[in-house]
Amino acid sequence: MARHRGASDATHKGRYPPSVEPPVHHSASRRSPEGLEGPAGAGPDPVRYIGDPVEKVIASFDSRIIRLYSRGRFTILREVFLEEIGQYLPRTGRVLDLGCGFGFFSLYFAAREPGREMFGIDLNARRIADANTAALRMGLENAHYEVRDAAEWDSEETFDAAYILDLLHHLPEREVAPFLGRLRARLRPGGTLIVKEVEDRPRWKMWFTLLLDRLMVGWREPIHYWPPAEMIALLEGLGFDVKKHSMRDWLPYPHVLYVCRLQEPAGESPGP
Q: Which residues does 103 contact at the CB level (< 8 Å), separation at least 6?
């Protein structure tokens, strides 16, 4: 489905420069947007007490449009799929969401496991502000969001796991290997990378998804649905052990999941 280089749950607006503004970091545990009680406020926000984590995430946004959009995203990548992804994420540790958009899914994973420290990055400052506000309303101190370009991302920090949801097929093909290489270098030994992408089979689902992507991003932007054999070869060449499985359901989207385990020490090149 359509994602852009800086937001995995937003439409693609074209290729971004490496940085349009200095990175800004906000932590949900420190930020108190106008009109909301902060963590030390006198009264709890009622959003925190909604039982269903999906409904909790949706209710944490003020904008009706964003709430409708989030419900659509949770319809396409339904909770059964999120649980399928979540089972491969550590219950404790640092988890990176590259191209987080409004933070729908990282908020969900943070709510499911309080021991997970979720970090989301996105180029769109408005979406990052909304994600931080949502985390505060949900009472999450383990969800943090920062303004950065996911496609140009690099960091000195390390992570126990990372995931990329529907982002790679919007990058120029030549940029995918360097991007994944930078990410691999920041994973700790034994770390996990989850890649959710669009498969090129069955063909009718691929063409349907391509039409939707083109309607959202235009006809000039790069879209490349990697054949599974090519994606697996690329990931294995970077030192990952890769498990691939398709995510089948009645929706007309050819979801595919790559679960990648890093066995070599982070930062070292894989052996021959």
A: 97, 120, 122, 127, 128, 130, 131, 134, 135, 143, 145
Closest Cα partner for 130 from 43, 26, 47, 37? 26
Both tokens of 1, joined, read 């489905």
Give residue-wise pLDDT tens across range 209-239. Answer: 656 656 666 667 777 788 889 999 999 999 9
Query: C-alpha distances in angstroms, 110 versus 42, 44, 73, 83, 94?
Result: 24, 18, 17, 13, 11
Cα–Cα distance measured from residue 228 to residue 252, given in angstroms and rounded to the nearest whole number = 18
**H helical segments located in the chain:** 53-59, 64-76, 79-86, 104-112, 125-137, 173-185, 203-217, 228-237
* Beta partners for residue 262, in sequence order: 240
Rounded to 5 degrees, what angle do the CA atoms 84, 268, 167 make? 40
Residue 100 vs residues 37, 39, 103, 207: alpha-carbon distances, Å: 24, 23, 5, 25
**55-82 pLDDT tens trace:** 999 999 999 999 998 998 888 777 677 8
Locate 9 and state its tokens: 């749950």
DSSP class of residue 2 equals -
Residues of the chain with pLDDT under 70: 1-51, 79, 202, 204, 206-219, 247-254, 264-272
Fold of 24-35+44-262: Rossmann fold (3.40.50)
Q: Could you give phi then psi for residue 241, rounded to 5 degrees?
A: -85, 125
Return the pLDDT at 66: 95
